[in-house]
Design goal:
Radius of gyration: 15 Å
Strand content: under 5%
Helix content: over 70%
Number of helices: 6
Structural class: mainly alpha
Number of strands: 0
Number of domains: 1
């Protein structure tokens, strides 16, 4: 497992657990891995790719936060998306974000249909970001993409 994958996996695990338990993504758990991923990108000669990925992946969730005034999604989700973009780069990062939205919609709608979740309930999104990232990493590693 590469250092980038390890930092990303540990970070996404922490964010998934805190978002599920407390409904919050903590800055203190976002910025150190973000800095580590940026340093790893710099040492690997892919800093520009990582920065473009971070900005691109954070832009959509940040726009949703702005449009919904924080009711549709929290700014912590944009920070987690930046982590994913930094690690995976712009193309795979955006794909992971898209997968996260698909997973989030599918699972949430299934829970609503099963009457396990009321319509309009707050749903932690960091776990879906992690699942979207995992989906892209596994597909890339399998050679299907």
């Amino acid at each position: 497992m590469s250092a980038v994958t390890l930092v990303l996996a540990l970070s996404l695990t922490v964010h998934t657990l805190t978002d599920l338990r407390e409904g919050y993504v903590y800055d203190v758990a976002v910025y150190p891995p973000l800095a580590a991923l940026a340093l790893l990108a710099l040492s690997g000669g892919r800093l520009v790719d990582a920065l473009v990925g971070a900005l691109l992946c954070a832009a959509l969730p940040a726009a949703l936060v702005a449009v919904t005034r924080g009711r549709g999604m929290g700014i912590g989700d944009a920070k987690v998306a930046a982590l994913i973009g930094t690690a995976l780069g712009p193309a795979a990062g955006v794909l992971a974000l898209g997968c996260a939205f698909v997973w989030g919609a599918a699972i949430s709608l299934a829970l609503v249909a099963a009457r396990r979740l009321p319509w309009g309930a707050r749903v932690a999104f960091a776990p879906f970001l992690a699942l979207g990232c995992l989906t892209v990493v596994l597909v890339e590693r399998s050679g299907l993409r």
